[in-house]
């Protein structure tokens, strides 16, 4: 449960949310990603009051404006790597040639160019994480919300993925919100938010 959080994230900002397990980091991320609605208080995503939107409106926002990178991957096991990366685009209609090329480029960028036809059970944890990151970026979201995006990666790949996320911010003014325990990753963010027992204790 979050208690009295007062937080403003400007467009194009990149912040790290830190804190011990159970401090409310994932709850805050779910609210920011329109997966949950606040039970009290308010949350505005741009000009939209999230608490006043219905499920269809929230789904439309998630599909068009938000990219998610989940700690538990959340890949669809029956789909190939390429199909998983394409899945956010499929919710918006038939996949165009430009969309397909973007998926292929992202797959190559995260090191999965040779794994396009593999399914999640055939991949290592790090490869599944990379597929999840590519999927989260494929719709060129205005906001990227990432839960431990480098947590299951070796040091070299973690640096590569972090570079990719920060390049997205620099080139497209994409707003990045990263939940992380990685002090080195957090140090690269413009701002660090610390939660404890559902309260914001430092910013």
Unreliable segments (pLDDT under 50, ≥5 consecutive)? none
Category by helix and strand content = alpha/beta
> What is the top-level CATH class?
Alpha Beta
Major sheet size, sense and barrel closure: 6 strands, mixed
Spell out the CATH superfamily.
Answer: P-loop containing nucleotide triphosphate hydrolases
Number of domains: 1
Instruction: Specify the number of helices.
Output: 7
Q: Just name the CATH architecture.
A: 3-Layer(aba) Sandwich
Any overview of this molecule?
It is a single chain. The protein has a single domain (14-202), classed as Rossmann fold (3-Layer(aba) Sandwich), CATH 3.40.50.300. The chain is built from seven helices and eight strands. It has helices spanning 25-32, 55-65, 81-90, 97-109, 125-137, 155-172, 183-187, and strands at 14-18, 44-45, 48-49, 66-69, 143-147, 175-179, 191-196, 199-202. It has a six-stranded mixed β-sheet, with helices on both faces. The longest helix is centred in the C-terminal third of the chain and has 18 residues, at 155-172. The radius of gyration is 17 Å and the shape is globular.
Give the topology.
Elements (H helix, E strand, L loop, with lengths): L13 E5 L6 H8 L11 E2 L2 E2 L5 H11 E4 L11 H10 L6 H13 L15 H13 L5 E5 L7 H18 L2 E5 L3 H5 L3 E6 L2 E4 L1
Parallel strand pairs: 1-6, 1-7, 4-5, 5-6
Antiparallel strand pairs: 2-3, 7-8
Helix pairs in contact: 3-4, 3-5, 4-5
